[in-house]
Amino acid sequence: MTHANHTTSTTSTANTPGGAHRTAPDGAMNGLLSTEGLPPWLTPVARAAETIEPLQLSRFLPPESGAGRQSAVLVLFGEGERGPELLLMERAGSLRSHAGQPSFPGGSLDPEDGDPRTDGPLRAALREAEEETGLDPRGVQLFGVLPRLFIPVSDFVVTPVLGWWRVPSPVGAVDLNETARVFTVPVADLTDPANRATAVHPRGHSGPAFLVESALVWGFTAGVIDRILHFAGWERPWDRSRQVPLDWRA
Q1: C-alpha dist (Å) from residue 122 to 35, 101, 118, 125
Q2: Model pTM?
Q3: Where is composition skewed (Low complexity) in this entry (predicted)?
Q4: pLDDT tens digits for range 191-242
Q5: How far is Cα 227 from Cα 19, in angstroms, rounded to an integer?
């Protein structure tokens, strides 16, 4: 899914305008969401998912009209050799748009996924992650949902779905025409100030970025990671004046 083409601007405002209220699936719905048995280090993330408001994530919120291409991404936390980590993928360099950009697994909702405002995003996030990375969804425990966000340039309404990789399974690029690689990033690297910067797009907008695993993570993906680190209390002070120019068209 293309969801890295717009930086996620943040604000401390917790109130949302009319029509932009938080819409998260019922936590007990069909047993798809559960916080039972999560490792203690994920508790701050689960708590943040219950209270965070849309404008605390981004100023780009879904249109009040309900328009937009409904989609979901899987923000999957696992535990690797260096502790907590996140699963990411990198788009193939041969693609016409957003070539080589890291992102969360995800994509558009299909009709069989269900209602976009309830459990549809949860099913879509798991389905797309399996299709793109080959992971076994039976080993993933979904424990939270962040508010829906909007990517104006692509018209995507994106629901970030939080998962715990309870039983890890082998992953890799399923279709090399679409995905160059699938990789994990230690949270320790994401919080390391030496790996943080502000990405500046040629069109003028800017946002957080991470230089990890030989990749520059920016745009929507970096914005969501930045806010998770912040609201989970994991963020470390970093030099926001350090800039990384984005010198391609996107």
Answers
A1: 15, 23, 8, 5
A2: 0.86
A3: 1-16
A4: 999 999 999 988 888 999 999 999 999 999 999 999 999 999 999 999 999 9
A5: 22
